[in-house]
Amino acid sequence: MQTSNSGLRPDRTMSTARQRGFLNSRQALVLIGLIFLAPIFVAWVMHHSTDGGWRPAGTTNRGNLVHPARPLAFPADIASNGVSLKNYLHGKWTLLYFSDAGCDETCRDNLYKMRQVRVAQNEDMRRVQTLFLMRAVEIPVELAGFLAKEHKEMAVALLSDAQADGIESQFRIDEIPVGEAHRIYIVDPLGNLMMYYLPEADPRDMLKDLQKLLKYSNIG
């Protein structure tokens, strides 16, 4: 008599199905975990891939945001044309630039960008001011003539070493000395440092950023 094994086959089939189902569930959990972790990993890589972090083409700002925005304070003994700058950063949007003694070609190019971005605001130009801070005892004659001719409306303040050290710490972004970084900074009307641009920044990007800030801001 031939013994039939047909009674055993369903159990084996069910056992195999359960095993496969268990493995699939475990794999599914791993897959779900990878799905959640992948965006975080990609964001981390993109953020550290370039200076200032990668930003998608559709982002609203083109400059580098300062997180969190930093409240700034100028000592009362810092002046421009004899006028104290203690409260200068309050009430208007400020394009600000630092330089060590003198002003080289990169410095002059950035001052030009600041002037043109401000003028390009048209009716909103009155809501924007420019400030040039320079670590120096006095302005060289040639530079003084250049500033008087090309940047009449720009406030210029000379800083002693002690004054510069006290202020520059508020603008430090990395290990590069502020006076050598050639960055243009944006300060909001409440006196908060909130954005900066690298030396090679396109002035059209500054223009677009500032236009949006002025459009959506109720202050300044």
Number of domains: 2
β-strand amount: 15-25%
Write down the CATH class of the largest domain: Alpha Beta
Give the averaged pLDDT, no decimals. 83
Low-confidence stretches: 44-58
Number of strands: 8
Q: Describe the main β-sheet briefly.
A: 6 strands, mixed
Radius of gyration: 29 Å
Order of the strands making up the biggest sheet: 1-8-7-4-5-6
**Element order: H for helix, E for strand:** HEEEEHEHEHHEEH
The structural class is: alpha/beta
| CATH topology descriptor of the largest domain | Glutaredoxin
Shape-level CATH architecture of the largest domain: 3-Layer(aba) Sandwich
- How many helical stretches? 6
- How would you name the CATH homologous superfamily of the largest domain? Glutaredoxin
Helix content: 40-55%
Which geometry do the CA atoms define? elongated
Terminal residue distance? 101 Å
